[in-house]
Specification:
It is built from five helices and seven strands; from the N terminus they run H-H-E-E-E-E-E-E-E-H-H-H. By secondary structure, it is α+β, with helices and mostly antiparallel strands. The chain has a single domain (12-189), classed as Peptide deformylase (Peptide Deformylase), CATH 3.90.45. The two termini are 30 Å apart.
Length: 191
């Protein structure tokens, strides 16, 4: 395993629509190594997830894990999940405003509307079919990562640019109010 360099906003790879993998490609040593490297890179950067194009590989793979994350202490834990060729669809019209940040957009946060519930379909790293629903804050995390695979960044979805702020100003001026909303979502949906 190795740490990969994370592409930052402005790099063209982040705007590419990632291509799907075949089962043969998924089984290959380079793709399995990519997945291992993505997990290590995400954990090293204290991310809640990372998409392959964030590490300069425009293929439809992302990893998500939330384990007492210091960057997102209000997010419920979620086990390591590898998604290959994922598709996400809303299971409700209900949305919430999620204050998001991104490893590819250093030191910036902003409010993004996200669906309160989504269905996720994908393969795991061995090619087994996954099909599950996610709700609440965790649903926002899945939508964020899948956006990357379509060449979108959270800043593209910020409706009110006045919500954009640095991490320190989020902590100082906005965190308390957002954490209260986040706790209400977690209490309601359990995730």
């Amino acid at each position: 395993m190795a740490l990969r360099k994370i592409a930052t906003i402005g790099h063209p790879v982040l705007r590419q629509h990632a291509r799907e993998l075949t089962r043969e490609e998924l089984e290959s040593a380079p793709v399995q190594r990519l997945i291992d490297d993505m997990v290590e890179t995400m954990r090293d950067a204290a991310g809640a997830g990372i998409a392959a194009n964030q590490v300069h590989e425009p293929v439809r793979v992302c990893v998500i894990e939330i384990a007492d994350n210091p960057r997102y202490p209000y997010k419920p834990n979620w086990p390591l999940t590898i998604l290959v060729n994922p598709v996400v669809e809303a299971t409700t019209a209900e949305t919430f405003l999620n204050f998001e940040g991104c490893l590819s957009v250093p030191n910036l946060r902003g409010q993004v509307p996200r669906f309160a519930g989504v269905r996720v379909r994908a393969w795991d790293r061995s090619g087994k079919q996954l099909d599950f629903e996610v709700k609440g804050l965790t649903a926002g995390t899945f939508q964020h990562e899948l956006d990357h695979l379509d060449g979108k960044l959270f800043v593209d979805r910020v409706v009110d640019t006045r919500t954009l702020c640095t991490w320190s100003d989020f902590e100082r001026f906005h965190k308390e109010e957002f954490v209260e909303r986040a706790k209400a979502l977690v209490a309601r949906f359990g995730s």
